[in-house]
Fold this sequence. Notes:
Blueprint: H1 3-11, H2 40-46, H3 49-61, H4 67-82, E1 88-92, E2 104-106, E3 108-111, E4 115-118, H5 122-126, E5 127-128, E6 148-152, E7 159-161, E8 164-173, H6 182-200, E9 210-224, H7 225-229, H8 232-237, H9 262-277, E10 282-287, E11 293-298, E12 301-302, H10 303-323, E13 326-329, E14 343-351, H11 364-383, H12 385-391, H13 395-398, E15 413-414, H14 417-427, H15 436-446, H16 450-455, E16 466-468, E17 473-475, H17 484-511, H18 516-531, H19 543-552, H20 560-567, H21 570-579, H22 584-638, H23 641-647, H24 649-680, H25 685-711
Parallel strand pairs: 1-8, 15-16
Antiparallel strand pairs: 1-2, 3-4, 5-6, 6-8, 7-8, 9-11, 9-12, 9-13, 9-14, 10-11, 14-17, 16-17
GO molecular function: glutamine synthetase activity
EC number: 6.3.1.2
Domain GS catalytic: 181-617
Amino acid sequence: MSTLRFKALETLPFKDFRKDNSVEIPAKLSELFCKNVFSEETMREYLTKEAFGSIMDAIKKGTKIQRHIADQVAVAMKDWAMSKGVTHYTHWFQPLTGTTAEKHDSFFTPIEGGRAIERFSGNMLIQQEPDASSFPNGGIRNTFEARGYTAWDPTSPAFIMGTTLCIPSIFISYTGETLDYKAPLLRALNAVDEAATSVMQYFDKNVTKVTPTLGWEQEYFLVDSALYQSRPDLVLTGKTLLGHSPAKGQQLDDHYFGSIPTRVMNFMKELEIECMKLGIPATTRHNEVAPNQFELAPMFEEVNVAVDHNSLLMDIMARVAHKHHFHILFHEKPFAGVNGSGKHNNWSLATDTGENLLSPGKNPKKNLQFLTFFVNTIKAVHEYADLLRASIASASNDHRLGANEAPPAIISVFIGTQLFSVLEELEKVTNGKLSPEEKTELKLNVVGKIPEILLDNTDRNRTSPFAFTGNKFEIRAVGSSANCAESMTVMNTIAAKQLNDFKKEVDALVETGLKKDEAIFNVLREYIKQCKNIMFEGDGYSDDWAKEAKKRGLNNLKTTPEALKQEMDKKFLDLYEEMGIFNHREVEARNEIKLEKYSTVIDIEARVLSDIARNHIIPSALNYQNRLIENVKGLKEIFGDKEFKSLAKEQMSLITSISENVSIIKLGVEELLKAREAAKSISDSQKQAEAYCNKVKPLFDGIREASDNLEMMVDDELWPMTKYREMLFTK
């Protein structure tokens, strides 16, 4: 380890950072669950019967809450929160920055006579007006128009962080456009609820509500705080821009599911305690593949609450990591040469009667129900694959997609060979009315055997971006730093659209005289034929698949600019407007924000790389070269020319190599800065992003390669840029 690294450890305020911060866990974590949440149980205790009923109707039926009820809820929330030492409240929202936001206001209110009281009214609960001028808006509003509104979302419970009552909220502009992730997600959830409930009337008229569920899997890296602070590239970009790979990385797979290091276990214990208090049902923890990479996963929840919990979790993780002298990395690819991090989104649909619509039943009718939602999901992805791809596009995720731990950029669906054979059988269904023999064959020998098939069909295809894994679909391509709401908004929107179309087609066939089951089979048969191009069971990493996908007409959108360009297709704009999720202006604004963010991220990386190359790499290399030159001069003074040439051969070679690589870096930095300035001057966001992608990013490689060459030559005592061998604290 370099002297500079030891100095970093010595000078940081905490000298005992390597000591174990042991954490005591209660005998039952369940006793802590929702301790700091205004949960249903807490509401029963604090609310009037009228107010409680109104809140539950809002959650379950989407009914509006009257103002006098909001006043009652506000008083109850304040009383509960103050009983736990709370002094402030905030509307907690998720703007398009990719992080959460909050503005704290005190309950404290002065009154006459030099006195004061704590006050919290229904008006304060329902709406706040934060200064919204600096949040991304994509041109929807002028910078000088600062007004924006946050509005309470009663479907996601309020919670306490420290001494602040946090109220989950949506965020909209003064003119009504959405400026956050939550508002469009709620619209999409409502759309899929209506569409799926309508289809469910074919199978069970008792179903009055369908709720999309989400189980996310959060991957992350932990790096010791002191070592993190010694890397300017990690601090400024979230990833290491330079440094060669160590001899031992993840080749032996010995970290994967291995014994969790003590310091990390203490971090995880405290994290789980905080999760329980906030109602986040974290149940799974383990080592991931890369050194010092880990994963946390909760139980499935309703999508809106799951999205809020994931955003909240990322905030909590950073706070708890700091207490244990770690820095947490959510970047999808913080270290080259090892696995990156994803956030797998496991999606399904559940009814208010307790059924998972992507699980088969005990009889042919329930299995036909399963097939209906199963095939319609595949059809939705087939029709809107490029929109789903755009929803997971980011500069950081581009580094991960297509590598050996993540799916490729080509969107395909994996269902397993056995289920694929079931769909092939359904494809053979006669067009129109079914014969008695066909009905028997379908119900007993095809549909009836689905439960048995699924018992042995739970394997995963790690190379598939969209895989069926037993009773849910797993969107594996979502990046670890992403807000789940983006992909979930798209997933639920396209599912709702597809189910609406399915209902219309089935009803049209029923009107022609076909029985309901026959009509459903006929429509599903056509869908299977139309969707076969997107179903793929093989290796998504292979070159053969890329060629085959092209033949099938599937797009391979490898970069964010390519993916986001597709997002502006009229088909997708019209979809959003038809389903009531976004108007055209809102889609265009969000597309603009994402393009600008992409360009800004690459621009920052280019600046940091240039600064490190000029201010760290070249001086360190020249310093070492000067020492070599002094060594050569000394050898020449001591030995004769003949001996000297032989003895100084290696030093002379190093001196030459250092000069060559320094020249490559200097020229590379000059070209990089020129390309960066040229890209920065482009006013069109799409073209600017393409310039950063195609002209700026490729110049990184030459600088990196020359820097790596120097790192392997230069004395470690002068070199602070080692890749990650010394960065990751695994014991």
